[in-house]
Amino acid sequence: MSRYLILALIYMLFLQQLASCYKFPIVINTWPFTNATKAAFHTIYDERKSYLDAIVAGCERCEIDECDGTVGPEGDPDESGEVTLDAMIMDGKTMDVGSVGCLRNISSAIRVARAVMDYTDHTLLVGELATNFAVEMGFKRTDISTGRAQAVYQKWLKNHCQPNYRQNVSPDPRSNCGPYSPNPTNWFQTNPHHESRSNKGIGPTNHDTIGMVVIDTQGNIASGTTTNGLGNKIPGRVGDSPVVGAGSYAENGKGGAAGTGDGDIMMRFLPAYSAVQMMGRGVDPMTAASQVLKPITAHYPKFAGAIITINSQGIFDISGRVRNTPLALPASGAQDARYSLRLCLLSLFTIWTND
Ligand SMILES: *[C@@H]1O[C@H](CO)[C@@H](O)[C@H](O)[C@H]1NC(C)=O
Ligand SMILES: *[C@@H]1O[C@H](CO)[C@@H](O)[C@H](O)[C@H]1NC(C)=O
Question: Would 99 disulfide with which of 34, 66, 76, 242, CB 3.0-4.6 Å?
Protein backbone atom coordinates (compact mmCIF):
# COMPACT_ATOMS: atom_id res chain seq x y z
CA MET A 1 0.00 0.00 0.00
CA SER A 2 2.60 2.51 1.08
CA ARG A 3 4.72 1.47 -1.87
CA TYR A 4 1.92 2.58 -4.24
CA LEU A 5 1.64 5.81 -2.38
CA ILE A 6 5.32 6.48 -2.78
CA LEU A 7 5.17 5.55 -6.46
CA ALA A 8 2.20 7.86 -6.96
CA LEU A 9 4.06 10.65 -5.19
CA ILE A 10 7.15 10.14 -7.32
CA TYR A 11 4.96 10.11 -10.42
CA MET A 12 3.31 13.39 -9.37
CA LEU A 13 6.68 14.95 -8.65
CA PHE A 14 7.85 13.81 -12.05
CA LEU A 15 4.83 15.29 -13.82
CA GLN A 16 5.14 18.55 -11.94
CA GLN A 17 8.81 18.73 -12.78
CA LEU A 18 8.12 17.90 -16.41
CA ALA A 19 5.57 20.73 -16.61
CA SER A 20 8.05 23.24 -15.22
CA CYS A 21 10.70 21.91 -17.61
CA TYR A 22 9.14 23.73 -20.49
CA LYS A 23 9.28 27.02 -18.68
CA PHE A 24 12.51 27.08 -16.69
CA PRO A 25 15.17 28.30 -16.64
CA ILE A 26 13.85 31.66 -17.72
CA VAL A 27 15.47 35.08 -18.14
CA ILE A 28 13.64 38.37 -18.51
CA ASN A 29 15.06 41.86 -18.63
CA THR A 30 14.12 45.47 -19.24
CA TRP A 31 14.66 46.93 -22.73
CA PRO A 32 15.38 44.86 -25.84
CA PHE A 33 18.99 44.16 -24.81
CA THR A 34 18.89 40.68 -26.29
CA ASN A 35 22.67 40.16 -26.07
CA ALA A 36 22.29 40.37 -22.30
CA THR A 37 19.30 38.03 -22.25
CA LYS A 38 21.20 35.50 -24.33
CA ALA A 39 24.34 35.78 -22.20
CA ALA A 40 22.36 35.09 -19.03
CA PHE A 41 20.50 32.21 -20.64
CA HIS A 42 23.68 30.70 -22.08
CA THR A 43 25.28 30.82 -18.63
CA ILE A 44 22.49 29.01 -16.78
CA TYR A 45 21.50 26.70 -19.66
CA ASP A 46 24.58 25.69 -21.63
CA GLU A 47 27.21 26.26 -18.98
CA ARG A 48 24.93 24.97 -16.19
CA LYS A 49 26.02 27.70 -13.85
CA SER A 50 23.81 29.15 -11.14
CA TYR A 51 20.96 31.65 -11.34
CA LEU A 52 23.27 34.22 -9.69
CA ASP A 53 25.99 33.59 -12.28
CA ALA A 54 23.34 34.14 -14.97
CA ILE A 55 22.45 37.56 -13.56
CA VAL A 56 26.12 38.57 -13.46
CA ALA A 57 26.78 37.34 -17.01
CA GLY A 58 23.68 39.04 -18.40
CA CYS A 59 24.27 42.37 -16.70
CA GLU A 60 27.98 42.29 -17.50
CA ARG A 61 27.17 41.73 -21.18
CA CYS A 62 25.34 45.06 -21.15
CA GLU A 63 28.27 46.76 -19.40
CA ILE A 64 30.59 45.47 -22.14
CA ASP A 65 28.16 46.40 -24.95
CA GLU A 66 27.58 49.76 -23.23
CA CYS A 67 23.86 49.22 -23.86
CA ASP A 68 22.29 52.50 -25.07
CA GLY A 69 25.19 54.33 -23.40
CA THR A 70 23.22 54.03 -20.16
CA VAL A 71 24.98 50.95 -18.82
CA GLY A 72 28.65 50.47 -18.03
CA PRO A 73 31.75 52.59 -18.67
CA GLU A 74 31.97 55.50 -21.14
CA GLY A 75 28.25 56.14 -20.66
CA ASP A 76 26.35 59.12 -19.36
CA PRO A 77 28.61 61.22 -17.13
CA ASP A 78 27.61 63.42 -14.17
CA GLU A 79 27.81 67.24 -14.00
CA SER A 80 31.58 67.07 -13.64
CA GLY A 81 32.11 64.73 -16.60
CA GLU A 82 32.75 61.64 -14.47
CA VAL A 83 30.96 58.33 -15.03
CA THR A 84 29.92 56.53 -11.85
CA LEU A 85 28.08 53.21 -11.68
CA ASP A 86 25.22 51.69 -9.67
CA ALA A 87 24.42 47.97 -9.53
CA MET A 88 22.80 45.30 -7.40
CA ILE A 89 22.23 41.56 -7.25
CA MET A 90 19.69 39.79 -5.06
CA ASP A 91 19.37 36.10 -4.19
CA GLY A 92 15.71 35.27 -3.65
CA LYS A 93 16.61 31.97 -1.98
CA THR A 94 18.73 33.39 0.87
CA MET A 95 17.60 37.05 0.61
CA ASP A 96 21.27 38.04 0.35
CA VAL A 97 21.97 41.27 -1.51
CA GLY A 98 25.14 42.91 -2.80
CA SER A 99 25.05 46.39 -4.22
CA VAL A 100 27.21 49.39 -5.07
CA GLY A 101 26.29 53.04 -5.54
CA CYS A 102 28.26 55.81 -7.20
CA LEU A 103 31.12 53.38 -7.87
CA ARG A 104 34.15 55.15 -9.39
CA ASN A 105 36.88 53.89 -11.69
CA ILE A 106 35.75 50.24 -12.05
CA SER A 107 34.19 48.92 -15.27
CA SER A 108 32.06 46.06 -14.03
CA ALA A 109 29.68 47.29 -11.35
CA ILE A 110 27.65 44.06 -11.32
CA ARG A 111 30.77 42.05 -10.47
CA VAL A 112 31.60 44.39 -7.60
CA ALA A 113 27.99 44.05 -6.37
CA ARG A 114 28.45 40.27 -6.47
CA ALA A 115 31.70 40.67 -4.51
CA VAL A 116 29.84 42.68 -1.83
CA MET A 117 27.41 39.76 -1.59
CA ASP A 118 30.08 37.05 -1.59
CA TYR A 119 32.81 38.59 0.55
CA THR A 120 30.96 40.80 3.08
CA ASP A 121 27.99 40.73 5.45
CA HIS A 122 26.95 44.13 4.12
CA THR A 123 24.39 45.08 1.51
CA LEU A 124 25.54 48.36 -0.03
CA LEU A 125 28.94 50.02 -0.49
CA VAL A 126 29.33 53.45 -2.08
CA GLY A 127 31.68 55.84 -3.82
CA GLU A 128 35.46 55.92 -3.66
CA LEU A 129 35.43 53.59 -0.65
CA ALA A 130 33.54 50.99 -2.69
CA THR A 131 36.32 51.35 -5.28
CA ASN A 132 38.91 50.65 -2.59
CA PHE A 133 36.99 47.52 -1.62
CA ALA A 134 36.83 46.43 -5.25
CA VAL A 135 40.59 46.89 -5.70
CA GLU A 136 41.18 44.78 -2.56
CA MET A 137 39.04 42.08 -4.16
CA GLY A 138 41.19 42.11 -7.29
CA PHE A 139 39.42 44.58 -9.58
CA LYS A 140 41.45 47.00 -11.69
CA ARG A 141 41.19 50.76 -11.23
CA THR A 142 40.68 52.40 -14.65
CA ASP A 143 39.35 55.58 -16.19
CA ILE A 144 35.73 54.83 -17.18
CA SER A 145 34.88 58.42 -18.16
CA THR A 146 36.59 58.41 -21.55
CA GLY A 147 35.30 58.33 -25.15
CA ARG A 148 31.58 58.83 -25.55
CA ALA A 149 31.25 60.17 -22.00
CA GLN A 150 33.49 63.15 -22.78
CA ALA A 151 31.55 63.94 -25.96
CA VAL A 152 28.28 63.89 -24.00
CA TYR A 153 29.84 66.11 -21.36
CA GLN A 154 31.14 68.71 -23.84
CA LYS A 155 27.73 68.85 -25.52
CA TRP A 156 26.05 69.42 -22.15
CA LEU A 157 28.44 72.25 -21.29
CA LYS A 158 27.77 73.93 -24.65
CA ASN A 159 24.03 73.55 -24.01
CA HIS A 160 24.30 75.77 -20.88
CA CYS A 161 24.35 72.68 -18.66
CA GLN A 162 20.89 71.45 -19.70
CA PRO A 163 19.16 69.22 -18.67
CA ASN A 164 19.83 70.17 -15.07
CA TYR A 165 18.59 68.66 -11.83
CA ARG A 166 19.20 71.59 -9.46
CA GLN A 167 16.36 73.65 -8.04
CA ASN A 168 15.98 76.73 -5.84
CA VAL A 169 19.58 77.83 -6.48
CA SER A 170 21.39 80.78 -8.04
CA PRO A 171 22.29 81.36 -10.80
CA ASP A 172 19.09 79.99 -12.39
CA PRO A 173 19.95 76.36 -13.18
CA ARG A 174 17.52 76.34 -16.13
CA SER A 175 19.92 78.44 -18.15
CA ASN A 176 23.22 78.56 -16.25
CA CYS A 177 26.08 76.31 -15.28
CA GLY A 178 27.34 76.21 -11.68
CA PRO A 179 28.72 76.63 -9.15
CA TYR A 180 25.39 77.28 -7.47
CA SER A 181 24.34 78.59 -4.09
CA PRO A 182 20.99 78.08 -2.36
CA ASN A 183 18.26 80.68 -2.78
CA PRO A 184 16.83 82.20 0.39
CA THR A 185 13.84 80.14 1.46
CA ASN A 186 10.52 81.51 0.31
CA TRP A 187 7.89 79.88 2.49
CA PHE A 188 5.04 81.02 0.26
CA GLN A 189 6.45 79.57 -2.91
CA THR A 190 5.13 76.14 -3.82
CA ASN A 191 7.58 73.52 -4.91
CA PRO A 192 7.99 73.85 -8.70
CA HIS A 193 9.70 70.50 -8.86
CA HIS A 194 6.79 68.20 -9.75
CA GLU A 195 6.03 69.99 -12.98
CA SER A 196 9.56 70.81 -14.09
CA ARG A 197 10.71 67.23 -13.71
CA SER A 198 8.82 66.04 -16.74
CA ASN A 199 10.71 68.48 -18.93
CA LYS A 200 14.10 66.86 -18.34
CA GLY A 201 13.58 64.59 -21.31
CA ILE A 202 14.02 61.34 -19.44
CA GLY A 203 14.03 58.78 -22.25
CA PRO A 204 15.89 55.75 -23.49
CA THR A 205 19.25 57.46 -23.93
CA ASN A 206 19.66 59.14 -20.55
CA HIS A 207 17.51 57.10 -18.16
CA ASP A 208 19.15 54.01 -16.89
CA THR A 209 19.48 50.57 -16.56
CA ILE A 210 19.20 47.01 -17.40
CA GLY A 211 17.11 45.16 -14.82
CA MET A 212 16.98 41.38 -15.00
CA VAL A 213 15.26 38.46 -13.30
CA VAL A 214 16.33 34.81 -13.63
CA ILE A 215 14.52 31.70 -12.38
CA ASP A 216 16.24 28.30 -12.48
CA THR A 217 14.67 24.84 -12.77
CA GLN A 218 14.56 24.51 -8.97
CA GLY A 219 12.53 27.68 -8.56
CA ASN A 220 15.41 29.82 -7.32
CA ILE A 221 14.92 33.46 -8.26
CA ALA A 222 17.61 36.13 -8.62
CA SER A 223 17.40 39.72 -9.75
CA GLY A 224 19.97 42.31 -10.73
CA THR A 225 20.53 45.74 -12.22
CA THR A 226 23.43 47.74 -13.58
CA THR A 227 23.60 51.31 -14.86
CA ASN A 228 25.64 54.48 -15.06
CA GLY A 229 22.58 56.37 -13.89
CA LEU A 230 20.87 59.49 -15.09
CA GLY A 231 22.93 61.55 -17.52
CA ASN A 232 24.22 64.87 -16.11
CA LYS A 233 23.25 63.86 -12.58
CA ILE A 234 24.64 65.84 -9.65
CA PRO A 235 27.91 64.19 -8.49
CA GLY A 236 27.14 61.76 -5.67
CA ARG A 237 23.67 60.92 -6.93
CA VAL A 238 22.62 57.30 -6.50
CA GLY A 239 19.51 56.15 -8.33
CA ASP A 240 17.01 53.39 -7.70
CA SER A 241 19.06 50.65 -9.34
CA PRO A 242 21.15 49.59 -6.31
CA VAL A 243 18.30 50.10 -3.83
CA VAL A 244 16.69 46.84 -2.72
CA GLY A 245 13.00 46.77 -3.63
CA ALA A 246 13.33 49.77 -5.93
CA GLY A 247 15.73 48.71 -8.71
CA SER A 248 14.86 45.06 -8.33
CA TYR A 249 13.62 42.43 -5.91
CA ALA A 250 13.49 38.63 -5.81
CA GLU A 251 11.96 36.18 -3.39
CA ASN A 252 11.62 32.45 -3.94
CA GLY A 253 8.03 31.26 -4.04
CA LYS A 254 6.77 34.76 -4.83
CA GLY A 255 8.56 36.14 -7.88
CA GLY A 256 10.89 38.82 -9.12
CA ALA A 257 10.64 42.37 -10.45
CA ALA A 258 12.89 45.08 -11.86
CA GLY A 259 12.30 48.71 -12.70
CA THR A 260 13.59 51.17 -15.25
CA GLY A 261 12.95 54.86 -15.73
CA ASP A 262 12.96 57.92 -13.50
CA GLY A 263 14.81 56.35 -10.58
CA ASP A 264 14.71 59.38 -8.30
CA ILE A 265 10.94 59.01 -8.29
CA MET A 266 10.72 55.22 -8.41
CA MET A 267 12.88 54.69 -5.33
CA ARG A 268 10.35 56.61 -3.23
CA PHE A 269 7.73 53.92 -3.85
CA LEU A 270 9.70 50.63 -3.78
CA PRO A 271 7.76 49.28 -6.79
CA ALA A 272 9.80 46.08 -7.20
CA TYR A 273 9.26 45.09 -3.56
CA SER A 274 5.55 45.87 -3.73
CA ALA A 275 5.06 43.92 -6.95
CA VAL A 276 6.79 40.80 -5.59
CA GLN A 277 4.73 40.89 -2.37
CA MET A 278 1.55 41.23 -4.43
CA MET A 279 2.50 38.24 -6.57
CA GLY A 280 3.21 36.34 -3.34
CA ARG A 281 -0.44 36.94 -2.40
CA GLY A 282 -1.55 35.50 -5.75
CA VAL A 283 -1.95 38.69 -7.76
CA ASP A 284 -1.05 38.05 -11.42
CA PRO A 285 2.13 39.67 -12.82
CA MET A 286 0.29 42.09 -15.10
CA THR A 287 -1.96 43.44 -12.36
CA ALA A 288 0.98 43.65 -9.94
CA ALA A 289 3.07 45.64 -12.43
CA SER A 290 0.32 48.14 -13.17
CA GLN A 291 -0.85 48.44 -9.55
CA VAL A 292 2.58 49.45 -8.21
CA LEU A 293 2.84 52.27 -10.75
CA LYS A 294 -0.48 53.77 -9.62
CA PRO A 295 0.73 55.62 -6.52
CA ILE A 296 3.68 56.95 -8.56
CA THR A 297 1.53 58.39 -11.33
CA ALA A 298 -0.95 59.71 -8.77
CA HIS A 299 1.79 61.94 -7.37
CA TYR A 300 3.78 62.42 -10.59
CA PRO A 301 1.37 62.37 -13.56
CA LYS A 302 4.18 62.80 -16.08
CA PHE A 303 6.33 60.08 -14.62
CA ALA A 304 8.27 57.96 -17.16
CA GLY A 305 9.24 54.44 -16.21
CA ALA A 306 8.35 50.76 -16.34
CA ILE A 307 8.46 47.63 -14.28
CA ILE A 308 8.81 44.00 -15.32
CA THR A 309 7.33 41.27 -13.16
CA ILE A 310 7.56 37.48 -13.12
CA ASN A 311 5.86 35.13 -10.69
CA SER A 312 7.18 31.84 -9.37
CA GLN A 313 5.28 29.97 -12.10
CA GLY A 314 7.32 31.80 -14.74
CA ILE A 315 4.50 34.02 -16.00
CA PHE A 316 5.86 37.47 -16.79
CA ASP A 317 4.56 40.87 -17.76
CA ILE A 318 5.34 44.55 -17.93
CA SER A 319 3.68 47.83 -17.20
CA GLY A 320 5.11 51.20 -18.05
CA ARG A 321 4.57 54.83 -18.83
CA VAL A 322 7.18 56.11 -21.23
CA ARG A 323 6.31 59.05 -23.41
CA ASN A 324 7.23 58.50 -27.09
CA THR A 325 9.74 55.79 -26.34
CA PRO A 326 9.54 52.03 -26.75
CA LEU A 327 8.56 50.20 -23.63
CA ALA A 328 10.97 47.83 -22.03
CA LEU A 329 10.54 44.43 -23.60
CA PRO A 330 10.88 41.36 -21.47
CA ALA A 331 12.57 38.64 -23.44
CA SER A 332 12.34 34.98 -22.63
CA GLY A 333 15.30 32.80 -23.38
CA ALA A 334 13.51 29.47 -23.07
CA GLN A 335 13.58 28.50 -26.73
CA ASP A 336 15.01 25.03 -26.95
CA ALA A 337 12.51 22.74 -25.26
CA ARG A 338 14.50 19.56 -25.85
CA TYR A 339 17.55 20.85 -24.10
CA SER A 340 15.43 22.28 -21.36
CA LEU A 341 13.91 18.86 -20.78
CA ARG A 342 17.31 17.26 -20.37
CA LEU A 343 18.39 19.86 -17.87
CA CYS A 344 15.14 19.46 -16.10
CA LEU A 345 15.42 15.72 -15.65
CA LEU A 346 18.86 16.32 -14.22
CA SER A 347 17.41 18.76 -11.74
CA LEU A 348 14.75 16.21 -10.84
CA PHE A 349 17.54 13.88 -9.98
CA THR A 350 19.12 16.48 -7.71
CA ILE A 351 15.85 17.03 -5.92
CA TRP A 352 15.69 13.30 -5.15
CA THR A 353 19.21 12.98 -3.93
CA ASN A 354 19.00 16.13 -1.86
CA ASP A 355 15.92 14.90 -0.08
C1 LIG B 1 25.60 42.15 -29.47
O2 LIG B 1 26.74 41.35 -29.61
C3 LIG B 1 27.31 41.39 -30.91
C4 LIG B 1 28.39 40.34 -31.02
O5 LIG B 1 29.07 40.13 -29.81
C6 LIG B 1 27.83 42.81 -31.15
O7 LIG B 1 28.43 42.90 -32.42
C8 LIG B 1 26.67 43.78 -31.05
O9 LIG B 1 27.11 45.10 -31.19
C10 LIG B 1 25.94 43.61 -29.73
N11 LIG B 1 24.72 44.38 -29.74
C12 LIG B 1 24.57 45.47 -29.00
C13 LIG B 1 23.24 46.15 -29.12
O14 LIG B 1 25.40 45.90 -28.25
C1 LIG C 1 39.50 57.63 -12.09
O2 LIG C 1 38.51 58.40 -12.74
C3 LIG C 1 38.87 59.75 -12.91
C4 LIG C 1 37.63 60.46 -13.48
O5 LIG C 1 37.25 59.90 -14.69
C6 LIG C 1 40.07 59.87 -13.81
O7 LIG C 1 40.44 61.22 -13.94
C8 LIG C 1 41.21 59.08 -13.22
O9 LIG C 1 42.30 59.06 -14.08
C10 LIG C 1 40.78 57.63 -12.91
N11 LIG C 1 41.82 56.91 -12.20
C12 LIG C 1 42.51 55.88 -12.73
C13 LIG C 1 43.54 55.27 -11.86
O14 LIG C 1 42.30 55.48 -13.86
Answer: 242
